[in-house]
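Encode chain A's predicted structure.
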Amino acid sequence: MITPLLSMTLIILVGHGVSRLGMFRPSVRKGMALILVNLTTPALILATVPSALRGIPLQNLSQFLLLAFLSLGMQIGIAHSVFCHKKQPEQGILRASASFGNLTYVALPLSVSLYGPTGLLYSTLFSLVHDLAFWIYVPQVLHQKSIQSKTNPLKTILVALFQPPLLALFMAFLLGLTPYTLPPLFQNALSSIGNCTIPLALLSLGASVGPMKKLTQSISALIHIALIKMLLLPLGLLALLLLIPLPKEGAGTLLLHIAAPTATFIQIVAQQHQSDETLAANLAIGTLLPGFILLPILIKLVC
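Encoded structure for chain A:
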């Protein structure tokens, strides 16, 4: 666990250093995000998930999905209760930030580094549940009554479900349920493209880290969110795992996803709904450090 984290931290630092030199401008980072979502991650899924799927009992997958729903529901419920006394728009930002994690840039790379194709399969399954809940819940808690949303919620959810990584997952499932495999030429090409996912994700994450504005105003919120994600939720997950046991790959991947630092995409949704995007950005960046410190300890406890 320590060696992959050290290697990943080094790549993040390289991304940050290159960004400080002016080589990772916003347009470059946007392009990298598009490549990650639309090309390398789908290629990685198609190259590795079918074979991983054939080696995992269907019961384990169904138990993992059930625990994903339960743990994410528990996460949203705790965040809703802890921050119910806050006023809008801060309340919505805090609830969303405590409920949804940075999967693409943190949880996915860690899962693949630790558990290989099996970790990728579990990670993609969790992302399906996570993204569906995100697009149902986050726009609602960030939406202010005085502002009329121009987005159709149903349309937004459908768009999220038809993102390339999830489409690739559906295709990989269909392929994994058959005895057939891709021709070696296509398999090798997909593997080569997919192998770029982890370093690109980590470089992009490092490039996004910059000086935090109004840091002192975010300290209390950061502490509360870190306690929710890295203390209350792991304890809750341990209790759930006593009732619904999972193999270490599934349990570890689930923990990495519910305890992941705050999702950076909340800032974009906050901007769309004219909410406090600065607070959202501070929380996404500020939870990275405690996440990388505490995640190895949490993995040892669960696995």
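The two ends are 11 Å apart (CA to CA).
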